[in-house]
Amino acid sequence: MWPRIKPILSKLLLLLSLVAFLILGESHFTVQPAWAEIRQIEETPGQLLYQSQHSLRDQTGYSWQVVLFKQVKDSTVTGVNLRLVGFPGVADFSHPKPLQIKIDTGEIFTAEDEFADKSPAPNVGQYDFKSVLLKLPMSQRTVLLLPLAEDRTIALPIPPSIILEWQTLAQN
Question: Which InterPro entries does the entry mention (predicted)?
Answer without folding.
Answer: DUF3122
